Automatic annotation (TrEMBL):
This is DNA helicase. Gene3D superfamilies: P-loop containing nucleotide triphosphate hydrolases. Transmembrane segments: none annotated. ATP binds at G221, G222, P223, G224, T225, G226, K227, T228. Keywords: ATP-binding, Helicase, Hydrolase, Nucleotide-binding. Residues 200-605 form the UvrD-like helicase ATP-binding domain. Residues 499-518 are annotated as: Disordered.
Length: 753
C-alpha cells in the first residue's frame, strides 16, 4: 500500500485497509455457511430417503418410526437451511476487540451464530451472553472492550465501518473509524418498513431486551425513544433464550392498527424469528376482523367495563323472532309453557350453564316444569319418567328448541344491539339514554357497512366467553356470490387503517347497505369463533390506548403468559386512565413487575421535536419528554394557507427534494377525500413519488415514522380525536428529518364545512 511522504497512510487508505481485513473474515463466514448449507441439504435428502417405502399398502411399525425420524431430521435441516438463506444479508454486523489478563481477543457478532469445522465460533449470535459486551460496554464500564466496531454490509460485501472507543486512548494497532455508528444510523432515510437496530442497540435498551421473561416488563418513554423496536428485539431475545417454551407456547405481539403491524412486520424475520404472531387490536379474535374505527363517543361506550352488564343481559335474552310460548300434546297431556314461565326457566338454567352448551339441561328443565303442570294426583314415578323422556325426544319440543334455544354466535348477539329497543332495555340503569342510542347507532353502522369496528371485536370476545363455544354454524346464511365477497374484500382493504392509496377509515363515508351488494350480515358472521388462542408471552405496544374491554380480551390470551408492555401516557387516546389501569392489572394476573424507562428520542430531529414538545407541554405539563439527540439545522415550516390541497402539493414537492425516503401527509377526516386525490396525482405524476408518499389519518399514524411529514389542520386533528391534543402530539412526532404544518385560514375552513 502506498503512503505519503512522511510514511503515513491517507484516511482513505486506512479505511480501505480496515475494510479489506473485515472482508476476509466475512468471506470466511460465508464459506463456512455454504459448507453448512450443503451439509443441511444432505441431511434433508438423507431424511427423505429414510422414510421412503416402495409399497403402496399399509406402513409397518418400523417404517412408521423411520418416518418420524425422517420428519424430525427434515424439519431441523430444512429450518437451518431456511435460516441460513434468510440471514444472508448483513449477517455479520459487529466486531469487538477485547483485552484481558490473558491477552487480546477478537469477537465477531452477527444475526446467527456460525462455527467452523473445529467448532470455534466465527460469529456469535447477538442474543448470546458472549455478545452482551457489544451492547453493554461503555467508556465508564468497558467490560474488557477496547474498541467496538459496527460493520455495514451490502449482501456479502463490507462497505463501511464505524467505531466507538471504550478506552481513553486506542492502542497503536487499533484504528478508529467514523463518527460513531448510532449517529450514522439515525441520519439515514426511512422506508415504509421499520428496520432492526441490532447493530446499534444502546446499553439501556439492551437491559430491557435481555430482562428475564417472568412477570410483566414495562417499557415507558416519550415519542421516538425506541420502545417499539426494543420490545421487538426483546421478543427475539426471549425466543432465543427459552426457545422451547416460547416457540411452543407462542408469542403474540399486539399493536394499535393494521398499518402498524405492516410497518413492523419485517423486524422479527430480519432477526431470524418468524414464529411470532403479529396482530392489530382489531384483529385479535379469529373470524372477527375490524375494518373501521368508531367515532369517539361510541368507542368510549364500547371500551368501558360498564358495557359488560349490557352484554350480560343481551347474552341471556331471547333470540329475535323466536316463539314466545311452547304448546304441545305430549304423552296425551296438553302442555303450555307461557312466556313468563320460559323466562323464569331461562334465567335458572343460565345461572349454572353456558348458553351454548345448555341445550340438554334446558330441555330437561322445560320437561320438569311441564310435568309439574300436567301431573295428576294418581301419577306414579314411572309416569313421570315416561313423560320426561317423551318430552325431551318430542318432535314439537325439538322444533321449538331449535328456534327458541339454538346456539347463538357472539357476533349475532352483538348485532341485536342494532335494535334501539333492545339496546335501551339492556342498557337500562347502566348507560345514559344518549349512550344507549350511540351504541345502537354504532351497531347499525356495523350492520349496514358490513365492517366490524375495532371496539366491536373486544365485545364479541366477551360475548364469546359468556355464551360458550358454538360447535356448528348456528345461523342459516343466505347464499352469496364469490364475486360479491371479492368486492367486499376489496372495499374492506380500502378502509382499514392506512393505505398508501386512499384515506383511512372515515365513519361518515362508509358505504351503506344499499350501496353494497349482498347481505352484509352474512359477511359479518362468516367463519367460526372458537375459544381464545393462548400464548406464552404477550407483547402490547401503544398500551396507553388499550381500552378496559380490550385489556380483558388480551388477558384471555395471556392467562399464563409473561408480558412486555410498551407505552407513553402523553400519547394516550383513551381517557379514563384509572379504569384502564385496573383492567390492565387484572389482565396481567402477576404481581412481578420490572420497569425500564427510555429517555432519548432517536427518531425526531431536535428541531422537529422542539415544536411538538411546546404543544404538549402547554396541555400536559408533566408529559414524559425525552432528549432528541440529532440536529438538522432546519426548523419545521408552519404556514397558514388558503388552498389546503395546493399548499400540501407544494410542501410534498419541496420535501421530496430535501429527503430521500418516505413522506406522509397526516390529515383529519375533513380533508381526507381531497388529499387522497392529491396523493393519487402525485404518486403517478412526474414527481414519481409512487413508493414514497402516503396519506394517513391521525390515529393510524401511531407507532409509525417517516422521513418527512405534512401535518394538515392541527386544530381539526385535536377536535376530531378522542385524545385531543395528545393525538396531535403523536402526529407531530412522526417525522425524522423535516415537518411542514399547514393551518387552513378561516376562508378555507368555512368553504370545507
Ligand atoms: N439503538 C438504536 N439504533 C438505531 N436506531 C434506533 C435505536 N433506537 C431507536 N432507534 C430508531 O428510533 C426510531 C424510533 O423508534 P421506535 O419507533 O421504536 O420508538 P417508540 O418509542 O416506539 O416511538 P413512539 O412511541 O413515538 O411510537 C426508529 O426509527 C428506531 O429504529
Amino acid at each position: 500500500m502506498s503512503t505519503n511522504e512522511t510514511g503515513e497512510r491517507s484516511p482513505a487508505q486506512v479505511l480501505a485497509h480496515e475494510l479489506a481485513v473485515e472482508q476476509q473474515h466475512v468471506d470466511r463466514v460465508y464459506q463456512e455457511l455454504r459448507k453448512a448449507d450443503e451439509r443441511a441439504a444432505l441431511v434433508e435428502a438423507e431424511g427423505m430417503s429414510r422414510g421412503r417405502t416402495d409399497r403402496t399398502g399399509d406402513i409397518r411399525d418400523e417404517e412408521m418410526s423411520g418416518l418420524f425420524a425422517r420428519d424430525a431430521l427434515v424439519f431441523r435441516a430444512g429450518r437451518r437451511r431456511h435460516d441460513l438463506e434468510r440471514q444472508h444479508e448483513g449477517l455479520v454486523f459487529g466486531r469487538l476487540d477485547m483485552q484481558d489478563d490473558h491477552g487480546r481477543e477478537v469477537r465477531y457478532i452477527g444475526r446467527i451464530g456460525v462455527r467452523d469445522d473445529d467448532y470455534e465460533p466465527l460469529v456469535v449470535d447477538w442474543r448470546a451472553p458472549a455478545a452482551s459486551p457489544f451492547y453493554r460496554a461503555t467508556p465508564v464500564d468497558p467490560q474488557n472492550v477496547l474498541r467496538r466496531r459496527v460493520l455495514r454490509c451490502r449482501d456479502d460485501r463490507v462497505i463501511g465501518a464505524e467505531d466507538d472507543l471504550m478506552v481513553a486512548e486506542a492502542p497503536e494497532d487499533l484504528v478508529v473509524l467514523g463518527e460513531g455508528a448510532l449517529m450514522a444510523a439515525l441520519g439515514r432515510s426511512r422506508s415504509a418498513r421499520m428496520r432492526d437496530i441490532v447493530a446499534t442497540i444502546q446499553a439501556h435498551q439492551d437491559e430491557a431486551i435481555r430482562a428475564p421473561a417472568r412477570g410483566v416488563t414495562e417499557i415507558t418513554g416519550g415519542p421516538g425513544t425506541g420502545k417499539t423496536v426494543v420490545a421487538l428485539h426483546r421478543a427475539a431475545y426471549l425466543l432465543y433464550s427459552d426457545r422451547r417454551r416460547f416457540e411452543a407456547g407462542g408469542v403474540l405481539v399486539v399493536g394499535p392498527s393494521p398499518a402498524y403491524t405492516a410497518y413492523i412486520e419485517r423486524v422479527l424475520p430480519s432477526l431470524g424469528e418468524e414464529s411470532v404472531v403479529l396482530r392489530a387490536l382489531g384483529d385479535v379474535v379469529e373470524a372477527c376482523t375490524a375494518g373501521r374505527l368508531d367515532p369517539p363517543a361510541a368507542a368510549a361506550v364500547k371500551g368501558s367495563l360498564r358495557i359488560r352488564r349490557v352484554l350480560g343481559r343481551a347474552s341471556r335474552d331471547t333470540i329475535p323472532g323466536a316463539p314466545q310460548e311452547l304448546r304441545a300434546m305430549i304423552a296425551g297431556r296438553a302442555v303450555r309453557l307461557d312466556r313468563r314461565t320460559l323466562d323464569r326457566i331461562r334465567s335458572r338454567v343460565l345461572r349454572r350453564h353456558h348458553r351454548n352448551s345448555s341445550l340438554e339441561p334446558m330441555s330437561l328443565a322445560l320437561a320438569a316444569e311441564a310435568w309439574s303442570q300436567v301431573r295428576r294426583p294418581d301419577d306414579r314415578d314411572t309416569d313421570r319418567e315416561e313423560f320426561i323422556s317423551t318430552f325431551v325426544d318430542h318432535l314439537e319440543v325439538d322444533a321449538f328448541l331449535r328456534r327458541w334455544w339454538r346456539p347463538v354466535d357472539p357476533r349475532e348477539v352483538l348485532l341485536w344491539l342494532a335494535d334501539p329497543a333492545r339496546a335501551r332495555r339492556y342498557a337500562q340503569d347502566v348507560l345514559s339514554h344518549r349512550e344507549a342510542e350511540v351504541l345502537s347507532e354504532s351497531m347499525r353502522l356495523t350492520l349496514e357497512s358490513g365492517l366490524w369496528s375495532a371496539a366491536d371485536v373486544s365485545l364479541v370476545d366477551d360475548l364469546d366467553v359468556r355464551l360458550g363455544e358454538v360447535k356448528e354454524a348456528p345461523v342459516e346464511r343466505g347464499f352469496f356470490e364469490i364475486e360479491e365477497l371479492d368486492e367486499l374484500e376489496a372495499q374492506r382493504s380500502l378502509r382499514v387503517g392506512v393505505t398508501p392509496e386512499r384515506p383511512a377509515p372515515e365513519h361518515s363515508a362508509l358505504p351503506t347497505a344499499r350501496e353494497r351488494h349482498g347481505d352484509t350480515r352474512d359477511e359479518l358472521l362468516r367463519g367460526h369463533i372458537g375459544p381464545p388462542a393462548e400464548y406464552a408471552h404477550v407483547l402490547v405496544d401503544e398500551a396507553q390506548d388499550v381500552s378496559p374491554m380490550q385489556w380483558r380480551m388480551l388477558g384471555r390470551r395471556g392467562r399464563w403468559a409473561s408480558w412486555t408492555v410498551v407505552g407513553d401516557a402523553a400519547q394516550a387516546s383513551w381517557e379514563d386512565v384509572a379504569e384502564a389501569t385496573a383492567a390492565r392489572e387484572d389482565a396481567f394476573g402477576s404481581p412481578v413487575r420490572r420497569s425500564f424507562h427510555m429517555g432519548t428520542n432517536y427518531r425526531n430531529a431536535r428541531e422537529v421535536f422542539a415544536y411538538a414538545e411546546k404543544v404538549i407541554r402547554e396541555h400536559v405539563p408533566d408529559a414524559d419528554i425525552p432528549d432528541a439527540v440529532r440536529e438538522t439545522g432546519v426548523q419545521p415550516v408552519d404556514r397558514t394557507v388558503t388552498d389546503v390541497v395546493d399548499a400540501a402539493r407544494r410542501s410534498v414537492l419541496d420535501l421530496a427534494a430535501e429527503v430521500d425516503g418516505s413522506i406522509a401527509i397526516v390529515a383529519p377526516a375533513r380533508w381526507a377525500r381531497e388529499l387522497a386525490d392529491l396523493v393519487d396525482e402525485l404518486r403517478s405524476g412526474p414527481a414519481d413519488l409512487g413508493g414514497r408518499l402516503v396519506l394517513v389519518d391521525p390515529l393510524s399514524s401511531k407507532g409509525l415514522e417517516y422521513d418527512a411529514t405534512v401535518v394538515v389542520d392541527p386544530d381539526e386533528i385535536v377536535a376530531e380525536s378522542p385524545g385531543g391534543v395528545r393525538v396531535l402530539y403523536v402526529v407531530l412526532t412522526r417525522a425524522a428529518h423535516r415537518m411542514h404544518v399547514l393551518r387552513p385560514d378561516s376562508a378555507s375552513s368555512s368553504h370545507q364545512r
